[in-house]
Fold these 2 entries.
Entry 1:
Amino acid sequence: MTIVITGATGHLGRLTIQSLLAKGVPASEIVGLGRQVDKIADLGVTVKQVAYEDPEALRAAFEGADKLLFISGSEAGNRLAQHRNVVDAAQAANVGLIVYTSAPKADTTDMKLAAEHKTTEQWIKDTGLPYVFLRNNWYVENYSVEQALAHGLFGAAGDGKISGSPRADYAEAAAAVLTTDGHEGKVYELGGEAFTLTELAAEIARQSGKPVTYTDLGEEKFREMLVGVGLPEAFAAILADVDRAASQGALFVSREDLEKLLGRPATPLATSIKAELAAVQG
């Protein structure tokens, strides 16, 4: 059995490898691909420096793969060329199963962030290879507790519920799919305990003992704020649109799929905030 993981040197990739090892998968059966290979050199798995922009290297790395965890590229708005390379290489190598980390409700949402994922899902289907789509919801870590303590939370999500969970939950779910049978052709909408940004701010305030509030700016003003703090215009527009969509329910899903794969309850928001506060406070 060989499990290949793209984007393995990122946060989600490393956590997934750790979860696979914890489930008893031998390190010799795991191949991690990425740019900064030093980030996972300590895990004992096979590591290869491979970028999404290198189709020949991708194909060579995929040869003999029984299962491929295709972690989507991190550059929103620039993913399609990278994803095309991965899908083509997977098809050429005839991998046994493609497990792709997608976006919430990718095939039905109007959220701009999901457009590249919708296209990638279709490309994967078109290969004819067995697949599983893991539609990961928002990571709790996307909201900086440190910045919230210093400046408060800002956004445009209104009272929209966000079914967030820490990266470790999504990594454990991916590891479960990679190590058990019966998932081929499944689409999992993965999300944890739902919260509004007002509720998130209140939880940070409760645990820290410091005042933390959420200010809803609306989509356009939130985009302007993001540009003002240094984000590229295109990326700021995507993030502002995520909040706009969240205000309309785009990031709310049942916990059922995630908890089924985990075999336990999703990590509570309070637990995630406790861990983030501990990291900030040392």
Entry 2:
Amino acid sequence: MEEKNASEIIARLDRLPVWSLPATFIAVLGTGFLFTFFDIFDINVSFIQTALTTFGVSSPSSPEIPQLLGPVVLWNLVGYVIGALALTPLADRYGRKRMLMITMAITGLGSLYNALSPDYLNYLLARTITGIGVGADLAIVNTYINEVSPVNGRAKFTSLVFLFATLGAFLGLWLGLLITTPPAPFPLGLPFALGTTGIFATAGWRIMYGIGSLLALIGLLLRVELPESPRWLASKGRIMEASKIVERMEEAARKKIGELPPVPQHIEVKTITEVSYKEALRTILGNRVYLKRWIIVMSMWFFGYITVYTNAAGLTTILSSLGYPSSEAGMIASLGILGFVAVPVLLILFGDRLERKVWVPISAVIMLLGGAIMAEAGHNFFLEVLGAFVLFFGNNLWIPISYAWTTENFPTRARVTGFGLADGIGHIGGGIGAFLVALQIGNIVSHGVTSNTPLEVFMLMISFQLLSALISLAGIRTAKRRLDEISPH
């Protein structure tokens, strides 16, 4: 009887054609994403000041900076992997909401530790702790969004929440430009930058991490109001709780569209009250269908993240090592990030119109164009900004779509675990790859910068995104299909 009732609840949920939770809940989830991506991107501009004031580096164009940055990115992603693998199964066992609170708290504490770091070793440890929270949080947030979104709008609402992520990235870069770089005439920098003034001259980067911890606290308090995922509750046999949430969602949908569509055919839903980590792993790795899907999406993330994190954490450092003044390099990255902001705007409108996997090669081609423009710009500021805009646009276009796609590949009882395994192990590629790419870039520029060096650097970075795009084409089609039809229990 429980399984019959669970199937009915899922069918009622799947018939809702519009977002049926309070609109403010999108902002609640988005605030968490804003902080998460602020934390990912705040290192891009500010790390140069950190290295100069705290790690004993003498020059902003020193090859030491990318060499110091590599381990920082690596250990942040090591933490990400730990969080993704160790904490995500708890969300499948104990619920999405409870773990959303815990992961945001971990992330905020890591950011506060970063603000207080006295040396390189503590800085590394703080970034690792922050990574633990981020790795789990992204998996749980994306799973939650897709479990409560309408069938024909999972990519749309993932992208809408991702809009807050782009604002966080934008804030991380521009705040770094304002309080950690020296003033310079526009467009070579900000004339009113504070990076050489008072406390900002030595502690601007610390203030940034302090702001990050405050954003995390705000995100944590807002999440208290979120309901549990009714899809997860139904899968646990908690029928009454799930039914009450779905009833509220149905009422909200009626207010928007009037009469609701008919309830679709029931899909068998097995209720499992307890799912251990071992059982969740067996669901993903012990089933041929889900194992194949996991290999594809994990490999896509593995290679794609090498490019993503090299660009996201290191573009300012790369440009500085190619001979750009640090303020100008930061300005190029900070204007280029507008390409990131444009991503969700496009995907909110068109994300559900194409299959998920098609967006990955589209993104890779756009990145190639952006990298080529930057490499051939020849220190032409406006061409560099255009190239950075295109580069950031391509670098992030595939990510929210692939977030949605990854959750769709796995069943409810192990959905967060599946996402964590794919995205977490994928980050191992991002961490090791970005570390090795940073070292290789340092080696390339240490031999002198020639006219061919920028093209060599950017093509090295983008080559991994091309490989990711080829792998993605082997994946399944999921657009506009019911979650339990794509990934049966």
